[in-house]
């Protein structure tokens, strides 16, 4: 019998929460950021140590600028500073002590969650409840944290097959190179010889551009040869999805400009790009850490055929086959159901407004940690969409008794054939997709604007149909309280008796 009193799913769930930490590229709380802005190098050491604990939980090394202080995220141990508030120039000890105490608590929590042995120390239900509450509180503070962007390299991703956007790319590139002399700007390599971008003309006019105007390729990004501080997308939601496809590991903050058709993910207007980028660089940004899935296609013997990070959804469908596909859905190794349908959609909260919604799935806020399972034209009326926690690992398998094979698509791209006996595993990715927030109610504004969510005409008065004389009488009546002849407390007198003897005199 195991001596671990903590359920395995709780361990997996809390660990997945910790994995979101390094993608913020910076620190924990607003208070700590305020301390750093007042030259608190000691608190910077605390935050660096805190993030190194997150790295020890299986996260990559990163280097970013936290409120103007360069911080290296490595695998060093926990180190809480002992410097007093007097050394930092604080007038009140309480202010510094609160900052350090919050950092200490966060460090301790991360250390506990990243170590299974630490979780075994939770012996009572009260300890378990306290730990779970601390995880939620930490996640809330992380979502409110401000990322300070370094000023080294920016990547611009332009919507393909739209020549008018090349001119906008040129305009933004020239402004960035002129305004920030130390910034390297990377533009799509396919535009290097474009006469619309006219890179040679830009370099000829200002020779300094030659060293800082560079061009990116897919292979360069996937190999991680260059560390980009932030990414700018010029296009629609498809351009943002393309950015997710390019970055299969850690993703820099994404600043999406709305130059497409719908715009669930693109919340910034290009007309204000100078102000938006200047504020982002000088003041920092707040991000939505959008969940991604790690999807792996396995052969029947377990060998991995391919692996893909998806932002919207994994789709497993029948492809060109004329037969209804048969798919077994597993939670780890437990069979959940057998689907006979055109296919299955497993969507992230971000993808809940895409293919899943068209197939009858529910809208899900991007901060909700769940996996949305939506059938495509199921051969039964009882197979309704369902949401499951992101702590589980799903598996979609084509059973040996299936009449046909299936096809898997990742965000609508990279279709892969799934033979009988093969399967696809899906779990929450350790690399979320950070999109820069425009406002607190950005999500509800998007679904209302794009989907007309809960949009209808309000009930209205009919006074505009009255004549002027009747309008005056109606207004006068509204100001006079009618005497109904009944006590206000005896409201039951309004009830109507529909019995057979209602007209009889008692």
TrEMBL record:
<dbReference type="GO" id="GO:0005524">
    <property type="term" value="F:ATP binding"/>
</dbReference>
<keyword id="KW-0520">NAD</keyword>
<dbReference type="GO" id="GO:0019674">
    <property type="term" value="P:NAD+ metabolic process"/>
</dbReference>
<feature type="region of interest" description="Disordered">
    <location>
        <begin position="480"/>
        <end position="506"/>
    </location>
</feature>
<feature type="compositionally biased region" description="Acidic residues">
    <location>
        <begin position="485"/>
        <end position="506"/>
    </location>
</feature>
<protein>
    <submittedName>
        <fullName>NAD(+) kinase</fullName>
    </submittedName>
</protein>
<dbReference type="Pfam" id="PF20143">
    <property type="entry name" value="NAD_kinase_C"/>
</dbReference>
<keyword id="KW-0521">NADP</keyword>
<dbReference type="InterPro" id="IPR017437">
    <property type="entry name" value="ATP-NAD_kinase_PpnK-typ_C"/>
</dbReference>
<comment type="similarity">
    <text>Belongs to the NAD kinase family.</text>
</comment>
<keyword id="KW-0067">ATP-binding</keyword>
<keyword id="KW-0547">Nucleotide-binding</keyword>
<feature type="region of interest" description="Disordered">
    <location>
        <begin position="40"/>
        <end position="61"/>
    </location>
</feature>
<dbReference type="Pfam" id="PF01513">
    <property type="entry name" value="NAD_kinase"/>
</dbReference>
<dbReference type="GO" id="GO:0006741">
    <property type="term" value="P:NADP+ biosynthetic process"/>
</dbReference>
<feature type="compositionally biased region" description="Low complexity">
    <location>
        <begin position="40"/>
        <end position="53"/>
    </location>
</feature>
<dbReference type="InterPro" id="IPR002504">
    <property type="entry name" value="NADK"/>
</dbReference>
<dbReference type="InterPro" id="IPR017438">
    <property type="entry name" value="ATP-NAD_kinase_N"/>
</dbReference>
<keyword id="KW-0418">Kinase</keyword>
<dbReference type="InterPro" id="IPR016064">
    <property type="entry name" value="NAD/diacylglycerol_kinase_sf"/>
</dbReference>
<dbReference type="GO" id="GO:0003951">
    <property type="term" value="F:NAD+ kinase activity"/>
</dbReference>
<keyword id="KW-0808">Transferase</keyword>
């Amino acid at each position: 019998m195991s001596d671990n009193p903590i359920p395995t799913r709780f361990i997996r769930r809390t660990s997945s929460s910790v994995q979101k930490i390094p993608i913020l590229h910076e620190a924990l709380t607003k208070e700590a950021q305020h301390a750093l802005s007042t030259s608190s190098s000691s608190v910077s050491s605390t935050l660096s140590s805190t993030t190194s604990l997150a790295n020890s939980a299986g996260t990559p090394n990163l280097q970013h600028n936290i409120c103007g202080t360069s911080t290296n995220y490595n695998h060093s141990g926990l180190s809480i500073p002992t410097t007093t508030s007097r050394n930092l120039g604080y007038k009140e000890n309480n202010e510094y002590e609160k900052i350090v105490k919050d950092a200490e608590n966060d460090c301790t929590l991360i250390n506990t969650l990243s170590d299974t042995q630490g979780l075994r120390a939770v012996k009572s239900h009260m300890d378990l409840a306290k730990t779970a509450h601390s995880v939620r509180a930490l996640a809330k503070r992380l979502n409110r944290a401000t990322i300070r962007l370094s000023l080294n390299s920016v990547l611009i991703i332009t919507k393909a097959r739209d020549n008018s956007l090349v001119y906008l790319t040129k305009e933004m590139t020239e402004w960035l190179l002129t305004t920030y002399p130390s910034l390297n700007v990377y533009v799509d390599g396919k535009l290097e010889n474009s006469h619309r971008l006219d890179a040679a003309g830009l370099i000829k006019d200002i020779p300094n551009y030659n060293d800082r105007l560079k061009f990116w390729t897919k292979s360069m990004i996937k190999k991680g040869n260059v560390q980009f501080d932030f990414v700018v997308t010029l296009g629609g939601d498809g351009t943002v999805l393309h950015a997710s496809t390019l970055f299969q590991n850690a993703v820099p903050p994404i600043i999406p400009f709305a130059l497409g058709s719908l715009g669930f993910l693109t919340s910034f207007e290009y007309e204000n790009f100078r102000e938006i980028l200047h504020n982002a660089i000088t003041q920092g940004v707040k991000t939505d850490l959008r969940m991604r899935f790690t999807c792996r296609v396995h052969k029947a013997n377990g060998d991995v055929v391919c692996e893909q990070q998806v932002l919207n959804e994994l789709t497993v469908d029948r492809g060109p086959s004329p037969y209804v596909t048969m798919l077994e859905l597993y939670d780890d190794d437990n069979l959940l159901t057998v689907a006979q349908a055109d296919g299955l959609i497993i969507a992230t909260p971000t993808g809940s407004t895409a293919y899943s919604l068209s197939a009858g799935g529910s809208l899900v806020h991007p901060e909700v940690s769940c996996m949305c399972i939506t059938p495509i034209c199921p051969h039964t009326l009882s197979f309704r969409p369902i949401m499951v926690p992101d702590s589980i690992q799903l598996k979609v398998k084509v059973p040996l008794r299936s009449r046909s094979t299936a096809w898997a698509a990742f965000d609508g791209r990279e279709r892969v054939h799934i033979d009988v006996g093969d399967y696809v595993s899906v779990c929450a990715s350790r690399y979320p997709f950070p999109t820069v927030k425009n406002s607190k109610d950005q999500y509800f504004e998007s679904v209302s604007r794009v989907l007309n969510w809960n949009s209808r005409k309000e009930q209205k008065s009919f006074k505009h149909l009255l004549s002027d004389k009747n309008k005056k009488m109606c207004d006068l009546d509204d100001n006079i309280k009618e005497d109904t002849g009944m006590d206000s407390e005896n409201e039951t007198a309004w009830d109507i008796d529909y019995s057979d003897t209602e007209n009889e005199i008692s």
